[in-house]
TrEMBL record:
Alphabetical keyword list: Methyltransferase, Transferase, Ubiquinone
BP GO terms, sorted: methylation
Pfam families (UniProt xref): Methyltransf_25
InterPro entries: Methyltransf_25 (IPR041698), SAM-dependent_MTases_sf (IPR029063)
Species whose genome carries this gene: Abyssicoccus albus
A Gene Ontology molecular function term of the record: methyltransferase activity
Name recorded for this polypeptide: Ubiquinone/menaquinone biosynthesis C-methylase UbiE
Methyltransferase domain sequence ranges: 42-135
Domain of life the protein comes from: Bacteria
Amino acid sequence: MGNELTQYNNLASIYDELTDDHDLDGWISIIEQFKQLQHQSILDLGCGTGKLLMHDKLSNQFKRRVGIDLSESMINLAQTKSNQVEYHVMDMVEMKFNETFDMLTCLCDSLNYVTEIDSVHQLFKQSFNHLSPDGVLIFDVHTLEKVKLFTDGVFYEDREEIFYHWTSDVDDDGYIDHELTFFVKKDELFERFDEFHTQRTFSKEMYLNLLEDVGFSRIEVFYDFNREDVHFNNQHRMFFAAFK
């Protein structure tokens, strides 16, 4: 994994506001659909500020909740929200715990920040090793169709206290380069900071091959938060549920 995730240190203080339109309930619904009665622990990879793990439905369904993220600022902010969730600054590709978990999640296209095939393979291997028997890994990624939307893309949003300008570019290997400029209001002035992020996505077949290679026994693939939507028809988000 590259160093791009460290850029989230600048974004941590405004991340929750910028993502207030994310379909958090949709991700929670996916987790609930795959949770089995015996599942009591969850590890969230790329947990950010902990919005998912702090959701009331997860706190009621999992006795143990753990989150990891490469951004120390994100983890520091998450830790201020609750002492009922355990957080660690950790690279998901190199994660190491002396325990297993019933469910691993890597949502909101966090896995797209793992840009090399060998690193994705290593992440799947680590995930398999950290799952309890009958455990499940759930993740989502951009589809290659969605990547096309970023081609020479220019986006911006103007809020009362935050303005940002975002340009992106893609190549034929599924890489997406995002360049963002933020202006955040501080007292009576606006403070500027710049971010550069790189993501990459692969084909459905590549993810399936890597998952099967590390030993996952059953894998479900579906699209856009709908478990019944199993046939690709230019959707933008691809979900995987891989069972140990």
